[in-house]
Amino acid sequence: MNEKDLTQKQNSIELLEKQRAIEMLEKQNVIYTIALDQIWDNLYDEEKDRLEWAWEQMESELNKLQNENTGRVLKRLFDQWGDDNRKD
What burial letters (b/e) apply to 18-47, b meaning 16+ CB within 10 Å? Predict the structure, then answer.
């Protein structure tokens, strides 16, 4: 082999090594992207669960307040109705 052939062979080997390195980096990038997607999904699910729980707590408290207010209004109406009937 002459020097030109050796240089071409060396260049080919270096090119193959670079291509393999790029392929490996691309595979790692895919793996990291999948891992990040899974982490994001898990965080989203956890936050969604927290928000749903907080919403349910808020609805529960609102229902309690509405029930209390309805009870007070009904008591007032019955008391007023009783007072009106006693006047007659």
Answer: eeeeeeeeeeeeeeeeeeeeeeeeeeeeee
Rg of the Cα trace of the chain? 37
pTM of the predicted protein model: 0.48
Structure tokens at 13: 């080997």
* Beta strand extents in 1-88 (DSSP E only): none
21, 30, 45, 60 from 35: Cα distances, Å: 21, 9, 15, 37
pLDDT tens-digit map of 62-74: 888 888 888 888 8
